[in-house]
Amino acid sequence: MDALQAILIAILQGATELFPVSSLGHAVVLPALLRSSLDQHAPEFLPFLVLLHVGTAVALLVFFWRDWLAIGLGVLGQGPAVQANRRLFLLIVVATIPAVIVGFTLRHAIQGLFASPLTAATFLVVNGVMLLFGERLRSRAVAGTASQTLRPMETLTVTDALVVGLWQCLALIPGISRSGATIVGGLLRGITHEGAAHFSFLIATPIIIGATVLEAPKLLHSTVPPGTFGIAAMAAVVAGIVAYASTAFLMRYFRRHEDWALNPFGYYCLAAGLGSLAVLLLR
Known about the structure:
Elements: H1 3-16, H2 23-34, H3 45-63, H4 65-75, H5 82-114, H6 117-144, H7 158-168, H8 178-187, H9 193-215, H10 228-256, H11 263-282
Helix pairs in contact: 1-2, 1-3, 1-10, 2-6, 3-9, 3-10, 4-5, 5-7, 5-9, 6-8, 6-11, 7-8, 8-9, 9-10
């Protein structure tokens, strides 16, 4: 892998990990469309993958450092709003548990079953339908109930967090976006776009760190070509910068477009998935 390939993949990872368009789906479909010779099972790709995840996780930690500092102080019984911060920590744990259980037991089986370019492209279409359907269903619920008010993240209950965590499990299928699924789960519980996105990005951090920890020990048993870690470290920095910029953009975007924020991403996934299917089937 040369430096240009590494930078392009890092940009793709940093953006699609947080935008509701499925980083895993793009990682499966794009090499097939471009007929890339990149071998994602090669020894040099593992440290690259691990450091990309590190870069993304660091970006999220830096962007939401106030939240994590408050949560850490709350767990220790210090700082203002101890109970509220302990409660947020509990909600993050509850939302993370389903993905940990399902991911640990079924991740390889699910990804092995669905991780072909055709099926990933198909699930990109499914992801688009999920985003559009979730947005429309929430809009109807709000319009049809005069007393319905949109709730901020601070009003999340344990049941809300569990529901969001169950939606997160869908992201184990290549083509289904983790952020998209969790935001839709939050919207259907009556949470604002900004609140749903905020909670989605908070629970992304332990998931990404957990995936990194699971992959890191494999480095001890693999032969890595010289120079690999230098390119991987550069890519991690690029992925982190893009992830930080993506998070900043999305938080502002969701705050300003409460009525239809997921629709553009839904239409994009429909177009990307259907276009990819057409190219792959007509070759």
